[in-house]
Amino acid sequence: MKHPLVAPVGALAIGVAVAQLAVFSFAETLLSVVLLGALALVGLRTGAYRAGFVACLSGFFFCGVMLGSRPDVPDPLRVDRVWIEGRDEADDPVRLSGWVRRPPESVDYGDRFVLEVETVFSDSVAHGGVQVIVYRGADDPALDLARGARVDFLARLRKPRNFQNPGSFDYVGYLESRRIFLTASVRAGTPIHSLDGRGGSWWLSLVWSARKAAERRLTGLFADHESDARVEGILRALLLGQRTGLNRQTREDFQRTGAYHALVISGLHVGAMAFVVLFLLRWAMVPATARTLITIILIVAYAFFVGAALPVMRAAWMCSAYLVSTLIYRHRRALNMIAGTALVFLLIDPALLFDASFQMSFLAVALIAGIGVPLLETTIEPYRRTLIDLWNEDRDLHLDPRVAQLRVALRMWLEPLPLLTRLPRRLIAGAVVGCLRIVVWMAALLVVSAVIQAGLTLPMAAHFQRVSWGGVLANLCVMPLLLVTLPLGMLALLTNSTLLGTLTWSFAQAISSIVGWFAADLPVDLRAPPPPFWLASVFGLALIGLSLSFGRASRWRLGAWLLFAASLTLLVVHPFKPRLMPDHLEFTAIDVGQGESLFLGLPDGQTVLVDGGGLPDFGGTRTLDIGDAVVSPYLWSRSIRRLDVLAITHSDSDHFAGVPALLENFAIGEIWLSRTAFGDEHRDWIDTVTSRGITVKSLQQGDRLSIGNVVFDVLGPAPESALAGLRENNRSLVLGTSFGDHRFLLTGDIEARAEERLLDGPRLRESDVLKVAHHGSATSTRDAFLDRVAPTFAVVSAGFRNPFGHPHPSVIERLSERGIRVLRTDLEGLISILTDGRRLSVETFRRQRAIKNRTGPGVRELPQCR
After folding, report:
1. How far is CA 278 from CA 4, 306, 335, in A?
2. For 496-642, where are the alpha helices, taking DSSP H only?
3. In this structure, are 485 and 538 located in the same domain?
4. For residues 834 and 832, what is the distance between their CA atoms, to the nearest angstrom?
């Protein structure tokens, strides 16, 4: 068997995955592993190799099940548990002491660092990481703390929280994988006291000191260059792993072109450094063993220098394992080495199987070893061999006839050139062969890049809902520049050479320009919903089949290619219908934090989105695009690629800031606007929207629209003459939505004055569901309004522990007094209410998650029908 570790790691991974779908007894699976292991040994001893092989694979499968179902033993001293157990009020400042695990880095609003906690509340022992934000004023200096420094300060603690929607990024899991369990905020001017002693290992402190010196040197090297924050941010990401200097446009350009991996230090950078070091040591004629040991030491040191993130450390160990394997003559067993490394990591931490970086790192290397290299051997490799020692005719006798024929033809073509050019044959031949080698190398890079890009389509669509078309061509240009920029930049930092710094800056500028051009002028990417499970399985089987097809009959290879092409096409095109309940009206309040976005699925399959969410405007830079990061993934998780109507109640940022991303990510049929909330100041934006072929309708009180059997009555805004002197919120679009016997009232951010005007009109009717205005602010939802509407359910869209105190206690009291069931996105997460025109049913994300986690007693029952 050429690759004996591939099947076991596959069986282990399947076992870990299966453990997430059902409940298994840890003791029983452990017993199964022991018995199957014994059976495999018996098969090996008695010569029953097939039975032993099956028992071995079954043992690895049950080992995966055992690891995946391993009970989680609570750690009572973990910092979040100590804090929750000992706190009095959630917002009271807490005294923390500990040592700096990751030194401060500047962000838009202050400084951020990671504290390894030693005590909480001054005397409660705890451990674990806390991500600390220290706010500072415009004139305050940056926070300067070395790794290992012990400090003590007051901070407000928060438990990290995900947006409670299907498809949302698991931010809590992301932090916990880095042993960060709480976040903390420190007000500007709060003293941070230094304590005696140091924490952590001394040698890691030395590494971080060297990194800090490199940061200062990098700043000095490029101080004389023309100010370009984009290029400087790219260099800091490439050389030091600091991505906080990358602005949103730079990130988006690299993501769209499929070149973002160049900015995230991982296997690509480790491999590039190993390649350069090996090349230089071989050129210096260092013996193979010493060359390998020196390279391993340097790449491990490099991994620690750039921050020792988990993907970088995995890449360093994988590269080290490969280099060691070359010493024992295992050059053609790269796939086996990759499988062995993955096996070790999964045995240590089976949860890595579901980590996007783990999947993409190992899949990329496996694609190169399993498909890329065999494909090169049948396409590009013959041409490369043709150019080796071209004028040695004796070599022709030991080569494949096709290669030998190419060499003869090339020599015949080159023979008359010295006579025509009057230049030495060696010079002419060297120049031509050198150019041909570059062409062959670029062709090989193109093949490998295409294989990786196509193979990574599945995890890219599953985790990031993005398929990059331009990745192949962009990487063809970026990769050679990266192979030069990375070692050149490291040499510039080591030597403090201005000349090398200038060259590094030039190459980074070229990378920036190329990526910017691809992103601006070419249709380089496509946003795609996550594929269904069956399609992901077929795609994975197609990749395996493709890898196994090399060296087999051509019909097998053709079948594997056809299966791969078909599954890739389905994955990209995603011709699947949106997951909607037929003949039902669905009202869903998406958890967008302190903002609002409401989804309506109509009985005939059409879709309406009311508002795009966003963060409140505090006058600073928004670091999160709610439309792209929260609303879009939720819609994609339901296979929605088109919105028939996008209604925007008003232009406040917490309702409107997410709209531009939605316009980019989805096909939009119509846009409904409040006629009085969108005036001349929005004319340019409206013109841009209409130029894309989208119909824009400006609505006001008295309008009525119908989509199938659903009727939308426009109850607000009132005409402009009636709104003089009123705040912007009172210009919100108010929609009364009716289907069958039931009615939903969507109120935007209207306040008491607008409610009074609605009460004066004849079209305000009783409604079964009220979307509470202005996130439950005390300025809205007055007694007379509630008495007229008389809802059964009141839905509040608000952020968890938001600074405005929404929903206000007085509003909750008024709703409760009338027996109205309050549903809040800050507590329940996503809220869905469905009706077939006769009955109402309610579902929340919290309830679904509780059922999934089998925590029945914790489920809060909701009335399911009316």
Report:
1. 28, 20, 21
2. 498-521, 533-549, 554-573, 626, 632-637
3. no
4. 7
Same domain? 590 vs 724: yes
Q: Clarify whether residues 420 and 404 are in a common domain.
A: yes
Phi/psi region, residue 206 (left: phi>0; alpha: psi -120 to 50; beta: rest), is alpha
Residue 45's CB: how many other CB atoms inside 10 A? 9
Write down the pTM of the prediction. 0.88
Number of continuous H segments (helices) and E segments (strands) in the chain: 33, 24
Cα 530 → chain centroid: 13
Q: What is the DSSP string of 188-225?
A: TT---EEEEEE-S-HHHHHHHHHHHHHHHHHHHHTTTS
Asked if residue 177 and residue 221 are part of one domain, the reply reads no
Amino acid letter, residue 430:
G
Taking only the tens place, the pLDDT of each residue in 233-248 is: 899 888 888 888 888 8
**Quick one: 302 and 384 in the same domain?**
no
Domain that holds residue 303: 201-354+477-530
Beta-strand ranges (E) seen in 82-187 are: 94-107, 110-120, 124-125, 129-135, 149-158, 180-186
Contact 156, 93 (CB under 8 A): yes
Peptide bond just before 717 cis, omega within 30 deg: yes
Q: What is the pLDDT of residue 742?
A: 96
Q: Could you give the angle at which helices 356-367 and 334-348 cross, rounded to 10 degrees?
A: 170
Q: Which of 781, 749, 754, 752 is nearest to 616 (CA)?
A: 749
Distance of CA 190 to the CA centre of its chain: 34
| 703, amino acid identity | D
Omega prior to 166 cis, within 30 of 0 = no
pLDDT tens digits for 751-803? 999 999 899 888 899 999 999 999 999 999 999 999 999 999 999 999 998 98
| Residue 850 and residue 748 share a domain | yes
* Whole-angstrom distance, CA of residue 530 vs CA of residue 519: 23
Tell whether 227 and 188 lie within a shared domain.
Answer: no
Reference 449, options 367, 358, 370, 379; nearest CA is: 367
Determine the angle formed by the axes of helices 229-240 and 202-221, rounding to 10 degrees.
Answer: 150
The answer to the question of residue 557 being in a domain is yes
C-alpha span between 152 and 121 (Å, rounded): 11
Q: Which helix (H) or strand (E) holds 588?
A: strand 585-589
Last residue of a domain, one of 156, 173, 200: 200
Higher pLDDT, 459 or 71: 459
Residue pLDDT, tens place only, 572-628: 999 999 999 999 999 999 999 999 999 999 999 999 999 999 988 765 555 789 999
Q: Same domain, yes or no, for 251 and 128?
A: no
The answer to whether position 52 is within a domain reads yes
Single out the residue in 68, 90, 112 at which a domain terminates. 68
In this structure, the chain runs to a length of 866
Q: Which of 259, 451, 446 is nearest to 365 (CA)?
A: 451
Question: Does 362 map to a domain?
Answer: no
Q: Give the total number of structural domains in the chain.
A: 6
Query: Is 619 within a domain?
Result: yes
